[in-house]
């Protein structure tokens, strides 16, 4: 291996620090998958000239899952912890946060995959927070599924008793006009 190939390889890899945790990734792979990374790493933005990039708007486990998707085009197997109601809290948490990250980094396929996961795991406890995400991040199909899920008076009554629904009522009551 020549010294020029070692140098080229080293330049192509970036250290990404997310909430104190370090990740290594190839700038060309990140740039190929995300227009945002493309602009940050290959465009005229500051990150182009540094080997270390700091990301402050994502939690480290979410970023790790996003990197897994970028390299494999699949979702990792999320740990799923079930409580007495059978909720998959870790799955929902990760899918919600990954949806936000996918929107932020313009990863449309990841966003669609997260929408699908959230749709398949809608329940009384998650539908209100999922509805808010769908509204905020322009997920029209997911929003429609949330509305459909709450179309029954009995289900809507149970949803209305959740903390997430009360938060929406307090902070954004106009958002509920569709429900």
Number of strands: 3
Which CATH architecture of one domain? Alpha Horseshoe
Judging from the principal axes of the Cα atoms, what is the shape? elongated
* CATH fold naming of one domain: Serine Threonine Protein Phosphatase 5, Tetratricopeptide repeat
Query: Span between N and C termini?
Result: 63 Å
Element order: H for helix, E for strand: HEEHHEHHHHHHH
What helical percentage do the residues reach? 55-70%
The class by helix and strand makeup works out as mainly alpha
Query: For the record, what CATH class of one domain applies?
Result: Mainly Alpha
Overall pLDDT metric: 83
Outline the biggest β-sheet. 3 strands, mixed
Question: How many helices?
Answer: 10
Strand percent estimate: 5-15%
Low-confidence stretches: 1-11, 80-87
Gyration radius over CA? 19 Å
Reading side by side through the largest sheet, how are the strands ordered?
Answer: 2-1-3
Pathway: Protein modification; protein ubiquitination
InterPro entries: BACK_BPM_SPOP, BPM1-6, BTB/POZ_dom, SKP1/BTB/POZ_sf
Pfam families: BACK_BPM_SPOP, BTB
Protein name: BTB/POZ and MATH domain-containing protein 2
Defining traits:
mainly alpha, Serine Threonine Protein Phosphatase 5, Tetratricopeptide repeat, 3 strands, 179 residues, elongated, three-stranded mixed sheet
Q: How would you explain this protein's 3D organization?
A:
The chain contains 10 helices and 3 strands. It is mainly α and 179 residues long. It has a domain at 122-179: Serine Threonine Protein Phosphatase 5, Tetratricopeptide repeat (Alpha Horseshoe). A 3-stranded mixed beta sheet has the order 2-1-3. Strand 1 (13-18) and strand 2 (21-26) form a beta hairpin. Helix 4 crosses helix 5, helix 5 packs antiparallel against helix 6 and helix 7 (127-136) runs antiparallel to helix 8. The longest helix has 16 residues, at 89-104. The termini are far apart. The model is unreliable at 1-11 and 80-87 (pLDDT under 50).
């Amino acid at each position: 291996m020549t010294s020029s190939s070692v140098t080229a390889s080293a330049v192509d890899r970036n250290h990404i620090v997310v909430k104190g945790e370090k990740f290594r990734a190839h700038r060309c792979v990140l740039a190929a998958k995300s227009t945002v990374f493309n602009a940050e790493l290959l465009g005229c933005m500051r990150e182009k000239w540094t080997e270390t990039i700091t990301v402050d708007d994502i939690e480290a486990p979410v970023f790790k899952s996003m990197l897994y998707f970028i390299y494999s085009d699949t979702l990792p197997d999320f740990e799923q912890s079930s409580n007495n109601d059978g909720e998959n809290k870790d799955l929902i948490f990760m899918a919600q946060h990954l949806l936000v990250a996918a929107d932020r980094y313009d990863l449309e396929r990841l966003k669609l995959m997260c929408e699908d996961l959230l749709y398949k795991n809608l329940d009384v406890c998650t539908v209100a927070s999922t509805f808010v995400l769908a509204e905020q991040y322009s997920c029209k199909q997911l929003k429609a599924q949330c509305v459909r899920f709450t179309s029954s008076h009995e289900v809507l009554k149970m949803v209305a008793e959740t903390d997430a629904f009360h938060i929406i009522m307090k902070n954004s009551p106009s958002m509920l006009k569709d429900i």
